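Need tokens for this chain, all 158 residues.
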Amino acid sequence: MELKEIKELIKLVSEYGVSEVEVEKGDFKIAIKKTYEGVVSAPVVSIPVAPVIQQAPVAPVIAAAPAPPAAAPAGNDAHLLTIKSPMIGTFYSSASPDKPAFVKPGDEIKAGKVVCIIEAMKLFNEIESEISGRIVKVLVENSSPVEYDQPLFLVEPM
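Here are the structure tokens for all 158 residues:
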């Protein structure tokens, strides 16, 4: 493969928003990967030295649709629903430190109301409630790290 062809591949990756391209011509193999900053990385060229061993195909992973809010654990709170974190990040109860919290215990909420912000990779994501009800308890402290599917709020359904 000539340098001109490699430059054309890099240009195509940039123009069409493709994140990765691999091309093989005989013993010549090139992989071009686009980084998050929009910069195309330098081409990686490899020439196989030994025969390539084929691996058995792996079944594709299919992402499931987000589950509806789960019921809270058994006990006094058995009738309560849980609003869970849809992602990993940092939990914020308000838009900024000088603003009031989006919700606090006793507040009534409707589906679609912003209940908190989760920062992930410097992006601030407003988290909206999928249920209507009354906030019974906030389970996470402000500025705390949260995991995917971690309970954030207990809600009494209305």
